[in-house]
Amino acid sequence: MSRKGKVLVAMSGGIDSTVTALMLHNEGYEVVGITMKTWDYASSGSSRKETGCCNIDSFNDARMAAVEHGFPHYILDIRSEFGDAVIDNFVEEYLAGRTPNPCIMCNTHIKWRALLKRADALNCDYIATGHYGIIKQHTNGRYYISKGVDETKDQSYVLWGLQQDLLSRTLLPLGKYRKTEIRQMALDFGYPELAKKSESYEICFVPDNDYRGFLKRRVEGLEEKVSGGNFVDTSGNVLGKHKGYPFYTIGQRKGLDIALGKPAYVTHIEPETNTVVLGDEEDLNRLEMLVGKLNWLKYDGITDGTEAFTKIRYKDKGTLATLNNHEKGIQVTFYDQVKGIAPGQSAVFYEGDDVIGGGIILRQ
């Protein structure tokens, strides 16, 4: 038994998770690798060949690394768990006129819970992933996530939903390194092909990046049910017909198939009336939003008037805002205009580099 403990490492077959496993193995942990099968593209109705994290080549790459370094590796099929929670939510959110973030949903409700369940079954002390973030413990005893050293790879935004019991058992060894250092480590470990391996940013169950096609295949008769709704301007004047409100997202400019003589952007979606509101770019600007379904990390909630840098999307730099408690969550008031707030997306609150907490945007 290792004096450092036993750790179950999620291995996708990619560079980050593989280096994570080998790094921990070298540091003296007793490593067990596990690769999770979340989805198969045949189920999506797409003809595209499987790529990314859910294909047999990735499984073999993960297993080979484990075998070569002398630690066990398992494949875990969680397609049923994944489908019920993540995909059903994905469809329901678009049908409600919102824009979901399935990767955050998966991290929060599926992958970490599945890992912890199997870690307990295998008598592992910890679970580990290849995410770029740093887990810390506050003097108040609470665990929280801080930004990774490499700001271009930092993934603290997508981990806001992890609860205390998960964070207390999680290791994120890559958070203190830059991506260039991880690529060098892959070379040093003897995996030159892994060091050059491209990264996938697709939603795993939407292999062609066509979420509209996925919705059509998933919901029988969807096109007939929602086609023919109105495009209207910000004053309510009808501008033309659209293909159905679920096929549009806040901030969308391309693919509207309507000629107005100037650029138009989706500024609001009204599923009850199958209406899509179009406006100018400045009509996307907002100073407020309501955030619900909260998860607090660094503190057990906030007091009214708390200031925090708030991110509304993964690549957002964040904008300083005041947070106030609300019966449905947190009322966020920005100091500067924020463009393209999309209900259904995540809002994450930061104190410096530390994640205070996060939630789902309920309304603009």
Structural class: alpha/beta
Can you say what the CATH homologous superfamily of the largest domain is? HUPs
* Overall mean confidence score, pLDDT: 91
Oligomer: single chain
Residue stretches low in confidence (pLDDT < 50, at least 5 long) are 44-52
N-to-C span: 53 Å
What radius of gyration results from the CA coordinates? 22 Å
Number of beta strands? 17
Strand content: 25-35%
Helix/strand order: EHEHEHHEEEHEHHHHEEEEEEEEEE
SS field, number of helical segments: 9
Main beta sheet: 6 strands, antiparallel, barrel
Looking across the biggest beta sheet, what order are the strands in? 12-15-14-13-16-17
What's the CATH class label of the largest domain?
Answer: Alpha Beta
Give the CATH topology of the largest domain. Answer: Rossmann fold
**Helix content bin:** 25-40%
CATH-derived architecture of the largest domain: 3-Layer(aba) Sandwich
* Total domain units: 3
| Basic shape | globular
